[in-house]
Amino acid sequence: MGRHTKLLLLCALMAASVLIGNAAIAGPITGLIGVGTWNTQAEFANVKVVSGTQTLYQSDFSSGMPGWTTSGGTWQIQDGSLRQTGSSTPALATVGSTAWTNYTLTLKARKISGSEGFVVVFGSPGGAVKSWWNIGGWGNAYHGLEMAGVSAPWVAGTIETGRWYDIRVQLSGSDIRCYLDGVLIHDTARMLDQSDRSARIQQILASSGNSLLNGEEEQRLREMLGRSVYFGAAVRATFDAMPSGPSFAGLNAVAQAVIIRKVNRNRLTWNLGWGYDGIDPNRRQAIIDSMDTAVTLYNSLGLFDKQVIANNSPGTPTADASYDGNIRFGGSYNSRVAIHELSHCMGAGTIGRWGELMIGGAWTGQYANAQLSALEGGPRVLNGDSMHFWPYGLNYDNEDSPENRRRNVLMVAALRRDMGIHTFQQTVYSTDVPNGVYRLSPRHAPGTALDVKNADPNNGAQIDIATRSYSGADEQRFFLDLQTDGTYRIRTALAGNRCVELPSGITDNGTKLRLQDNSGGPAQRWYLIPMGDGWYKIAPKNNLNKAMDVEGISTASGALVESWDYWDGFGQQWSLNLLSPAFSTVELSRALAIAGGAYKATSADLARLNAATGAGAATIDLSDAIAIARKLSGLETNP
User: Fold this and answer.
1) Which among 126, 104, 129, 107 is positioned nearest to 118, based on CA atoms?
2) pLDDT one-digit tens code per residue, 519-576
3) pLDDT averaged over the chain?
4) How many CA atoms, within 13 angstroms, populate the side-chain half-sphere of residue 541?
5) Given its phi and psi angles, is residue 6 left (phi above 0), alpha (psi -120 to 50 degrees) or beta?
6) Range of weakest confidence among 292-306, 516-530, 609-623
7) What span, in angstroms and rounded, lies between the C-alpha atoms of 112 and 83?
8) Please, are residues 45 and 80 in contact by the beta-carbon 8 Å criterion?
9) Residues in CB range of 603: below 8 A, 6 or more apart
C-alpha cells in the first residue's frame, strides 16, 4: 500500500516578501588549512588533515614547502619544522583544497617570541581572509574564532614562549570543535551571512514542503522567520534540522515539511534590547549566554510562542520581566535567572488569571497540580504568591540543578494550560504509519500504555492508561489501519475489535473516549500528526485543534483519556510501538488459500506465518489462518 502525507488545508504561497531577521545553520565548512602569526614568531610541525579514514595531507618539511602558499611574514624550514620569523599582521601559510570538508586538522605549534600566540587556519577560501582560530590573541589574553558567521565567545588564555602545544580542529558540517592540549576550548557552529540567510529562508518558503503547511502554520512560520533575533546558540539550535541548500532541495515535499515543522516549533526567540552602549563586554556576553541557554531549554521541552527582549538595566536590583516579553537584567543575570524570568514572560505572576488561580498561597488549577504530582510521585498542590511559584520556580540559586530546570519548564507549560494560554495548532498529518498492532504510550509517562479499562470489550468501555508492565494483553493492544481519507481507525484487540471513538463525535474538552461498534463515522477516525522525535498528536477527524489527552497529565493507572484543546503537552503526544505488522490484502488471501489448500505456500509465506505461530507445517487449519490474519492485521473476518 502506498504511503504518503496529505494536508488538511492547502494554501498558496504568500507572494509578499518578508524581512529576514533569523539565521540558519550554514552548509558544511570547506576550505584550505594553514598556520600563521600576528606580530609574533612561531614554528609548526606534524601538520595532518584526516577526513574519515582518508589522510588528505601529512606534512613532510624535509623537502621544503611543496604545495604551500604564503601571505606576509618570513617563512623557512628549520630542524624539520615550518618557522615564521617576521612581524607581519598577519603572516599566513596555507595548503590544501578549497573543497576539503568534514576534516580533522592536527598539528604542533611553539611560540618563539612576540606579543601574541599563533593562528590556525581552517575552512579558508585563500588569501588573508579571516578564517582561523586565534590562539593567545588580543595581546596574548584570549583564544577566539575569527570567521564569518561565527559568534562564539572568546576564552581567556595565554601561550607560553618556548612550549610546544598540541592543537586539534574538528569540522563536521558547520560544527567547529577546537582543542588545545586535549582540552575542548570552543564548541560552536558557523552561521550563514545575511545574504545566505535570506536565500535559505526564501528556499524554505518556496519549497514544496512549505505548501504542505496549513494556512495558519505557514503564516506563523513567516512571522517567526521575520523576527529580529540575536544570532547566537538559540538560533543555531532552532535550525539544527536544516541540511545544506542542495540537500534540502533534493528532498521530497514530505521530508521537507518535517524539517520545516521542526524549525517552526522553536518559536521562543530573543534579541538584545537597550542598555548595552559602553557595557563591560564580559557582562554583555554573560547575558547572551544566559539567554541562549534559557531559550534553548524552553524550545527543547515545549512550544512557547513569544519574542523576548533582554535589556541591560544595572539599576534593577536583581532582574524582572513582564508578560510583554521584556526582561531587565540588573544585579543578577546568570542562566538560572534567565530561565526564571522567562516564566514571568510566559504568564507566571504577570497576567490577571494568575491571581484568580493562586488563592491563599495554593494553586487551584488542575494541570499544574497534576504535573507536580506526576513529578513527585504522589498528590501535591503547588504553592506560590502574587508573582512566584514553588517548588521548581528556580527563585534562588540554591534551587538550581539540571533536573530542576527541566521541571521548571514543564511546570510553566502546565501553568499556562491552567491559565488558558495556548499555542497554534500543527495539522500536517501522516499516512506513513504502517497498518498493524500497536502499543500506544503517552510522552509524559512512557512506561504506561493506552488501555481498555478493566479489559471490558463491550460498547461503552472507557479508555485509560495502565501503569502495569506491558504483558501483551489484548486490552493494551490496538489495531491501526489507514482509511481512504487519510485518517486511521483505532480498534482494540479485545473480542469484537471495537473502535476507539468520541461519543456522538463530541470533541468538547473533557469528553472521555470509549469503545463502540465500527460505524465508519468521523467520531471513530483519527489523524496521526508527527510532532517530532517519533511522537504523534492523535487528533479527531472532526476537530484537529483537539487531541487525545491523558486527563490531568496523570501518570496513575486508570487515568482516563479524553479530548482536549491541543497545547503541546506531553500528555497529548504518543509513541506508536509496532508489535505486529499487518498482512496486505494479497497476503491475507494467500493465508486463507494456504489453509484451503488452493495456494502452494512459498518459503516467504511460511516464514511470515511461522513467525506468528511457530508452526512448521506447509498447510494450516482455516480457523488458524483466520486467527493469524486477524492477529497480524486486525482485518475483520467479515468486513
Assistant:
1) 107
2) 989 999 999 988 766 889 999 998 888 999 999 888 888 999 999 888 778 889 999 9
3) 83
4) 20
5) beta
6) 609-623
7) 9
8) yes
9) none
Q: Which of 241, 302, 298 minimizes the C-alpha distance to 270?
A: 298
C-alpha cell at 634: 486486525
Give the integer Cα–Cα distance in Å for 66 and 60.
Answer: 9
SS3 45: strand
Three-state secondary-structure class, residue 25: strand
DSSP code of residue 240: T
pTM for this prediction: 0.60
pLDDT at position 617: 44
8 A C-beta contact, residue 16 and residue 9: no
Comparing CA positions, the residue from 543, 538, 603, 599 lying closest to residue 571 is 538
CA separation for the pair 186, 168 (Å, rounded): 11
pLDDT given at position 196: 61
Q: How far apart are CA 332 and CA 34, in angstroms?
A: 42
Give CA–CA dist 41/68, Å, rounded.
Answer: 18
Asked if residue 174 lies in contact with residue 182, where contact means CB atoms within 8 angstroms, the answer is no
What integer pLDDT is reported at residue 93 of this predicted model?
Answer: 93
The CA distance from 334 to 298, in Å, is 16
Based on its alpha-carbon atoms, the radius of gyration of the chain, rounded to whole angstroms, reads 30
Asked if residues 405 and 287 have their Cβ atoms less than 8 Å apart, the reply is no
pLDDT for res 456: 96
Question: Are the C-beta atoms of residues 492 and 500 closer than 8 Å to each other?
Answer: yes
Q: How far apart are CA 434 and CA 456, in angstroms?
A: 27
Q: What does each C-alpha distance from 546 to 86, 500, 561, 582 come to in angstroms?
A: 70, 15, 13, 28
Q: What is the per-residue pLDDT for 16?
A: 21
Q: How far is CA 366 from the centre of its chain?
A: 28
106 has pLDDT over 90 = yes
pLDDT in tens, 472-488: 788 999 999 888 888 99
pLDDT at 27: 65
Instruction: Give yes or no for a contact between 382 and 411, defined as CB atoms under 8 angstroms apart.
Output: yes
In 336-448 the beta strands, taken as DSSP E runs, fall at 358-359, 362-363, 383-384, 389-390, 436-442
- Greater pLDDT, 262 or 538: 538
CB atoms within 10 A of CB 208: 14
Nine-digit cell at 10? 492547502
The predicted-structure confidence for 372-421, as pLDDT tens digits, reads as follows 988 888 899 999 999 999 999 999 999 999 999 999 999 998 899 899 88
Buried b (16+ CB within 10 A) or exposed e, 35-74: bbbbebbbbbbbbbbeeeeeebbebebeeeeeebebbbbe
Examine the pLDDT at 250 and tell me if it is beyond 90. Answer: no
Cell numbers at 261, concatenated:
515543522
Residues with Cβ within 8 Å of 212's Cβ and at least 6 positions away in sequence, in order, are 5, 7, 253, 254, 256, 257, 428
Whole-Å CA distances, 558 to 4, 310, 575, 587: 35, 45, 19, 37
